[in-house]
Write a structure and sequence with these properties.
The chain is mainly α. It is built from 24 helices and no strands. Helix 12 runs antiparallel to helix 13, helix 15 runs antiparallel to helix 16 and helix 21 packs antiparallel against helix 22.
Amino acid sequence: MAPPRRLTSMSIALAAAAAVFAVTLLVLEGQRGAEPGVANAAGRPGPDQIITEAEQRVAADPRFAPGLTKLAEGYFARAGATGNPAWLTKAEDAGRRAVRADPEAFEAMDALASIAASRHRFREALMWTQRSLAVAPTRVAPLSIRTDALIELGRYDEGFKLAQTRLDLRPDLPSYSRASYVRELIGDRAGAVRLMELAIDAAAQNSDSRATARAQLGLVLLAGGDLAGAERQVRTALAEVPGDTNATFVLARVSAARGDLEEAAELFSQVAAELPEPDHLAALAEVERALGRTEAAERHEAAMRAAFDLLEANGQDVDLDAALLTVDLRRPTTADVARARRGQAARPGIAGDQALGWVLTRAGRCAEGDRYASRSLRLGTQDPLMLFHAGMAAACAGRPAVARDRLTAALELNPAFSVRWAPIARKELARLPR
């Protein structure tokens, strides 16, 4: 599976959480005690084999903690492979049974931390990593999960420091990828590229991890407007791992940025068929609308809402992401604003500030929207969609000079950052007084 990643059609700020599932799944994929960076080495059992063997052992002894832990790992891996969050519910049940059977089952605690993080329940993830480290303090796997949770909670000093600690302890694929993400968050794109190149070099040849690392690098390059570089990375990934979903998703974004919407729609369709996750369906709907295929777009938007409902029914906190994607489709309601506020309270970092700022701006609450949008830029993140949101918020709040600076920066980074919103950014710039 993938290293830590930010594969999403939204923005860097939101992507860390949207992709935590794949980040933390690596902790669980390998053999007992294995680290995430080698989770895909040849000969490792897949989810089906893990589940079959674990179910047999648990059937013989329902309180056998190692078997229950393996069962949690296998269910979690199956959730990642299928995109079906119902497997997360089964994984959590197995993990909790393991901890009840053995209160020092630290690997089960790691599994539960990963499940919580994948559901965007980051405070719960921190609790489980704290318990795991109290039992077995010398391992790096819980540090990875803990880093992700701290960053999503806006505890950047702690999260960035822990990312560096992880890198110092073990300079491997997940460490390099997290360090790359830190550099991207603070606006150091060149540093982010260098570290992702090291992550690729650290991955096994022709592995899923290597393919996804290339896809991550493709996204970094794409956000900076280097479409050719992004395409080279993902086509190399697809040559090494044909059909890789992450690389196909990034290739679809490259095609959309180039204006080849038919190809983008075809590629997004492949991704959504494989993993019908909300951001995949939203990206597909956006392209279908741009092609004038309203009926198809509405169908995918309905599927997106159903996907959110399924995630929520299986324990995921979807408030922030659902509010953000929903208000891209229509003017926000009072309920949408309330949902975004809940989401920001649960994730009070730049992701939460960006999403709430955009929802408030779209709702016409301009001063408050501008305040949150401005806060979302506090790390210096150079993400075009984030800058666009902040630019539109400033324009709404009557700050044309600030709006112009932000919108110009978004378009200079990537003139085709969004099929829908890049043209709006250009129109708004033309409208703003000089």
